[in-house]
Backbone:
C-alpha cells in the first residue's frame, strides 16, 4: 500500500472492527466523545464485518460528534476487517482498539505524545484494565491465564521498551509506515465465528518483532475493557482456553517428535495425565477450574495439529 499524496494526512487513525454488537459499540463510541484531543488531527474508522444495519445506525448517530467513518468488510474475520481499514486510514499512527472498551479521556493524547518521545519506535502498547460486572470471576487475577483471557495489561511498570508480544488488541498502536511497507494481519487468525484461533494481534506482533521492530509500553495510555456477564462463566473460559491452545499450536510449528493421528504424541500423554489429575481434584473447585483450563488448551493443541495434518494430505 502506497499512501496517496493528494489525501490530507492525520496524526491518528483509531481503528475498530465490530461484528453484530451495536449496543456494545454504542458505549465505546460514547466514551470516545469525551476524549481530550487538543490539537490532534484524527479519525475513527469503524469496520462492520457483518454489513449490519443496526451497526450502521449506531455509527451514523455519532457522526455529528466524532470524526467517524463507516466501512463494510463482508469477508468474515476480524483480521480481514482490520486489513480493510489500514487500506484507507490516513493517520501517521494507527491506534487499534476493540468495540467493547471505555477510553480514558487522555488516551489518545498519551499515545500520541508517547510516540513523539520515541520517534524510532514502531509499536506501542498501553495499559488495559478490566471492568468486571458485579459477581465473582472464575479465576483469580494472579492466575497465568487471567491476562490472556480478559486482554488485561496492568503490570505496574514504567514507560519503556517492551516485548510487543505482550501487548493486546484493545490498546495497540503501530506506525502507519509498517502497513505502507506491506505488513498485514493474518486472516487465518483471530475472531471468525464461534470456532477460531485466538491471537489476532499477537501473531502480527510476533512477526514484526522477528523482523527487528521495537516496541514501547506507555502506562499512561489507558483503556478499560468491559467484561460481560457471560465472560464470567467457566464454560466461556474453557472455550477461550481452547482457542488459545489452537494459537499455541500455530506458534510452535511442527516439533521434531513422534506423531500420532497427526499430532505430537506427547500431547496425548499429557491429556491422559491431566484427566487423572482432574478426577483426583474433583472436589476442589479452584484446582478443578485450573486443570480444566489446561485441559482445554491441550484440546486446542490437538485439534489444530490434527486439522493441519488433514489439510496436508
Residues:
Amino acid at each position: 500500500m502506497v499512501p496517496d499524496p493528494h489525501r490530507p494526512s492525520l496524526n491518528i487513525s483509531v481503528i475498530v472492527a465490530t461484528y453484530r454488537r451495536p449496543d456494545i459499540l454504542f458505549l465505546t463510541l460514547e466514551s470516545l466523545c469525551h476524549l481530550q484531543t487538543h490539537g490532534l488531527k484524527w479519525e475513527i474508522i469503524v469496520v462492520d464485518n457483518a454489513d449490519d444495519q443496526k451497526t450502521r445506525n449506531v455509527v451514523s448517530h455519532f457522526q455529528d460528534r466524532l470524526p467517524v467513518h463507516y466501512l463494510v468488510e463482508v469477508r468474515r474475520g476480524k483480521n480481514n476487517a482490520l486489513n480493510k481499514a489500514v487500506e484507507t486510514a490516513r493517520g501517521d499512527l494507527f491506534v487499534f482498539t476493540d468495540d467493547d472498551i471505555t477510553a480514558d479521556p487522555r488516551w489518545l493524547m498519551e499515545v500520541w505524545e508517547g510516540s513523539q518521545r520515541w520517534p524510532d519506535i514502531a509499536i506501542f502498547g498501553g495499559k488495559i484494565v478490566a471492568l468486571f460486572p458485579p459477581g465473582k470471576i472464575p479465576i483469580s487475577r494472579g492466575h497465568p491465564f487471567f491476562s490472556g483471557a480478559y486482554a488485561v495489561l496492568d503490570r505496574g511498570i514504567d514507560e519503556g521498551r517492551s516485548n510487543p508480544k505482550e501487548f493486546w488488541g484493545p490498546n495497540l498502536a503501530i506506525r502507519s509506515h509498517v502497513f505502507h511497507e506491506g505488513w498485514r494481519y493474518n486472516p487465518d487468525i483471530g475472531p471468525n465465528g464461534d470456532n477460531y484461533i485466538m491471537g489476532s494481534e499477537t501473531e502480527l506482533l510476533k512477526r514484526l518483532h522477528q523482523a527487528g521492530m521495537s516496541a514501547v509500553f506507555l502506562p499512561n495510555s489507558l483503556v478499560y475493557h468491559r467484561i460481560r456477564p457471560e465472560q464470567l462463566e467457566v464454560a466461556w473460559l474453557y472455550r477461550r482456553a481452547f482457542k488459545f491452545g489452537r494459537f499455541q499450536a500455530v506458534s510452535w510449528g511442527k516439533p521434531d517428535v513422534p506423531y500420532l493421528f497427526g499430532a505430537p504424541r506427547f500431547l496425548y500423554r499429557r491429556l491422559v495425565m491431566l484427566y487423572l489429575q482432574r478426577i483426583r481434584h474433583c472436589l476442589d473447585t479452584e484446582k478443578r477450574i485450573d486443570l480444566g483450563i489446561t485441559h482445554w488448551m491441550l484440546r486446542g493443541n490437538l485439534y489444530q495439529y490434527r486439522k493441519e495434518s488433514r489439510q496436508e494430505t
